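User: Quick sanity check before I run a bigger batch. Here is a single chain. Can you write out its predicted 3D structure?
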Amino acid sequence: MRVAVTLAYNGTHFFGSQIQKETKNTIFGQFEYTLLKLGINCKIIASGRTDKGVHATGQVCHIDLPEFWSDLAKLKRVLNEMLPHTIRVKSIKAVSDEFHARYSAKKRVYRYIIKKEESNPFDNDFVTFLKYVDFAQIEKNIKLFIGEHDFKQFFKTGSDTKSTSRIIYKAFAYKHKGYIILNFEANGFLRSQIRLMVGAILNLSEEEIKEQLECKKSYKVKPAPSNGLYLAKIKY
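Assistant: Done. Predicted structure follows.
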């Protein structure tokens, strides 16, 4: 039986989500290790990967269960008892054999969280703290990314892709209880694309962003820190 598993995780102390030969200390490395303990030896297909330090509230993967694991409520409970406390299974749902966590996805939603104040040890792993924030400029800059663009100036090499063009359906910023939330919804994202976009939104002018989006000029901008980034939802 094929199932879709929705995960939430704190990515602070993991080397990203993707399974790696060098270490088990990745999100799906830990998930695979736990599944094997339960007699589930299968390939884990994720909707996409998140980098080191990036979090998720709605990551999705699919796995093919052996026949003896038909009680999905029990499986969810047992997994949450065995997984590290920084990884939680939010849901397990039966899906068709044609479902593919990555290729069936139509839209992906990410959020980036910023706060204008001194950092503190309790929130530092989950929020990017900045001393200066121009919210009005953020609102203007983020809207420039809406639409279909060639993002070859906004990604790190190593992306598994044949094209650097992506469609961003929504890009907006809002304030919530002292935080500034940047929201992005697209058909897909390249490696580190959102962090580089946030870096541009915070540090470049509207004209500079337009020039870089149109591939006319390239401005050196550091990617925003990983700790403020969340994979929020996968839409199918």
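The first strand starts at residue 2 and ends at 9.

User: Great, the batch can go ahead then.
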